[in-house]
Design goal:
Blueprint: H1 2-16, H2 21-28, H3 32-39, H4 47-57, H5 61-66, H6 75-81, H7 86-104, H8 110-119
């Protein structure tokens, strides 16, 4: 289970940087197939590879391995997520990524996102 969670965080980092498995693999010196196995939690990581992933994505090893968000990160995000378990933080970050993907969809769901934001009391310019 731990390796699946680590893999999910790595997949989130990769997709958040808009990189294919092949692009990400090349950046850290492994194969795309290996990245796929890591993201599914079927492969273990060496310390060397964790370091390469950190350097490539800007994420901390603490986040990759344990899901902990660094105190030096975005203070608004940290404040909004404080008190949540690591699993709940992962869920919230996944939701944020999906919303970002919806916003970035060509001709995409801006009206839906605006309505959800409005109903949530969020006054943001999307």
């Amino acid at each position: 289970m731990v390796w699946a969670q680590i893999g999910a965080r790595i997949e989130g980092l990769r997709s958040g940087h808009h990189m294919s498995k092949a692009q990400f693999a090349k950046a850290i010196g492994v194969s795309g197939q290996y990245i796929g196995m890591v993201e599914k939690g079927k492969c273990h990581l060496s310390v060397n590879l964790v370091e390469k992933i950190c350097r490539s994505t800007g994420a901390s090893a603490d986040f990759i391995l344990f899901g902990n968000i660094e105190p030096g990160g975005d203070q608004l995000t940290i404040a909004a997520l404080s008190g949540l378990s690591n699993e709940q933080i992962e869920i919230a970050l996944d939701i944020i990524k999906k919303i970002a993907a919806l916003i970035n969809t060509e001709g995409g769901n801006e009206a839906l996102i605006r309505e959800v934001a409005y109903q949530s009391g969020v006054s943001a310019h999307i």
